[in-house]
Write a structure and sequence with these properties.
Helix content: 25-40%
Shape: elongated
CATH class of the largest domain: Mainly Beta
Order of helices and strands: HEHEEEEEEEEEEHH
Largest sheet: 5 strands, antiparallel
Strand content: 25-35%
Number of strands: 11
Distance between the termini: 30 Å
Low-confidence stretches: 3-17, 144-159
Mean pLDDT: 75
Structural class: alpha+beta
Length: about 190
């Protein structure tokens, strides 16, 4: 029972940003005012949390391949995924600076997300996508882009909480059932 609960929680947990990596957009106001059909280059920097946990420190640049920008248009159309490239001349991944050139979708931009492409491998199963969504510190669309699933709301892992509550309820009901059977047998 405990092993099943641990497995359920491990697979149900949403894919959050890698550790404490955060993205900071350069000129977020350009995104908010962009017009449909306009070509726009979005630049951002990825930084990890400071090593010593100093809250005001800038942290260290974070670099990886497979970084992308996901954009949703205000007209409700399909999401657009644009693969990012490292900023030229800044020592590759070590700079943490990325660029993505996109065409603004119909109606303008409703939400954005920065992701790191990844896969989940489980023995005996086909690999599945398990991208990590990196929180944007200065997101110009926070109401629509909040949280790892970019579905709005707070960054709360509701699914694992629900699974944990269901397991706890099952354990309590089973114990009460056993206790009732034991007391009836003792009479």
């Amino acid at each position: 029972m405990i092993a099943a609960t641990a497995c359920a929680l491990a697979t149900a947990w949403p894919a959050h940003g890698k550790g404490a990596v955060r993205a900071t957009l350069e000129h977020p106001e350009h995104l908010a005012g962009a017009r449909a059909g306009e070509r726009l280059t979005v630049a951002w920097t990825l930084r990890s949390a400071p090593r010593l946990g100093v809250p005001d420190a800038a942290g260290e640049p974070f670099g990886a391949s497979g970084i992308y920008l996901r954009v949703r248009g205000a007209d409700g159309g399909a999401r657009q995924i644009v693969w990012a490239r490292r900023s030229a001349g800044l020592r590759g991944y070590r700079s943490g600076r990325y660029l993505a050139t996109m065409t603004v979708p119909g109606g303008g931009i409703a939400s954005i997300a920065i992701g790191l492409a990844g896969y989940r491998y489980v023995a005996g199963h086909t690999p599945t996508r398990a991208d990590l969504i990196i929180p944007i510190v200065n997101d110009p669309f926070p109401r629509w882009s909040a949280g790892p699933a970019a579905g709005g709301g707070a960054d709360v892992p509701w699914l694992p909480i629900a699974v944990l509550l269901a397991v706890a309820t099952t354990v309590v009901v089973a114990r009460h059932a056993r206790a009732g059977t034991a007391s009836a047998t003792a009479r």
